[in-house]
């Protein structure tokens, strides 16, 4: 049994974990070329090439604000369509839930003087939190996000199988929310 995390983006993060949480594969997928639809189609095919029957999958939800909305929407739908065609169900984690699973809120500082983390700052905070929580590092923030989603897939599966959890409160909250909206 494998637990997959997929972070759809122009550089798509992909992580596969075994049943013990050990990394089997962690890579960034990019497709071929820089012109669509070839890039998008080949990127979706790259993702599909890594899928196996029985995989337990978590995919990041649609981004709320993106400069490349058409590409993001097409990629997200394309991957979901391929999962559907292969009869592979999946959990969907909202972008903020992915960060919350490792206790990153998007803010820094003390109460009364908090500052919002910007894109690169937030990505670094997530990468640091993943290293602290799971001792996992990777040079790509997309792969790190995919790692979180693979862990979420694993936890969702085990919570559904055992009806119990050993997670922290913030992680349990994320899992409960995802399970309420499971596909």
From TrEMBL:
Gene3D superfamilies listed in its UniProt record: Ribonuclease H-like superfamily/Ribonuclease H
InterPro entries hit by this protein: RNaseH-like_sf, RNaseH_sf
Gene Ontology molecular function, alphabetical: nucleic acid binding
Highest rank taxon of the organism: Bacteria
Protein name, as recorded: Uncharacterized protein
Source organism per UniProt: Sutcliffiella horikoshii
